[in-house]
UniProtKB/TrEMBL annotation:
This is Sigma-70 family RNA polymerase sigma factor. It comes from Candidatus Coatesbacteria bacterium RBG_13_66_14. It comes from the Bacteria. GO terms for molecular function: DNA binding; sigma factor activity. Residues 148-199 form the RNA polymerase sigma factor 70 region 4 type domain. The lineage of its organism: Bacteria, Candidatus Coatesiibacteriota. Residues 40-107 form the RNA polymerase sigma-70 region domain. The keyword Transcription applies.
């Protein structure tokens, strides 16, 4: 997935004034800063897309959400605190953009990552993949396993799916996840524990042979 801030602006149909601001912004960014930004995007594009996919369950929406997060990062480079983790800040932006977009689309339904959700069936999950269940017989390689596990994670209640994805799929520490999700480390531990339990229950139905598999 190639991230292009200018293409992202055009696709979202922002007005000419906003586009003009981006042109001015590009002219004032030093070449070294732009190179650093491009390198950061290249390094983290796939993992940001993966988290967006877990949150949205839709490839187009995930791509759009990831591009929007990178665009917001680009516009804020000169104001970013260098003592903070840029990656963690980006994940926080991604989470907040998802919540905002979900609330806009659902208006009166304001359930979010930080609000109570039903732990029963898949009906409590705002977004789910539209593709059919993966065939367990096809899980013969690491790619197939990753697809099945990521799909199962995406179907968890969102406050659990993001915590599990950040920890088990992207390798963030509890402290980093606490910063991203803006909650205590104790809450992070609880969400990961509960999320993993729900994940195992789901895998027991769709791919029981993976119950001993721990995402890398």
């Amino acid at each position: 997935m190639k991230e292009d801030p200018d293409r992202g602006v055009s696709r979202r149909g922002n007005d000419s004034a906003a586009e003009g601001d981006d042109v001015e912004r590009a002219l004032t960014v030093s070449s070294s800063e732009r190179e650093a930004y491009d390198a950061f995007v290249e390094e983290h594009a796939q993992e940001v897309y993966n988290i967006a996919m877990v949150l949205t369950g839709d490839r187009f929406r995930a791509d759009e959400l990831a591009q929007e997060a990178f665009l917001k990062l680009y516009r804020s480079l000169r104001h970013f605190d260098p003592d903070r983790s840029l990656r963690n800040w980006l994940y926080t932006v991604l989470k907040n953009l998802y919540i905002d977009s979900w609330r806009r689309e659902n208006r009166m339904k304001t359930s979010s990552i930080d609000e109570p959700v039903s732990l029963g069936g898949g009906s409590s999950v705002p977004f789910q993949l539209e593709s059919p269940e993966p065939d367990p017989e096809r899980a013969v390689g690491s790619n197939e396993v990753a697809v099945i596990v990521r799909d199962a994670v995406s179907r968890l209640p969102k406050k659990y799916s993001m915590a599990v994805a950040l920890c088990d799929l992207e390798g963030l520490t509890y402290e980093e996840i606490s910063e991203v999700m803006e909650c205590s480390i104790g809450t992070v531990r609880s969400r990961i524990h509960r999320g993993r339990k729900l994940l195992r229950e789901r895998l027991a139905h769709v791919a029981p042979q993976l119950l001993g598999y721990t995402p890398a």
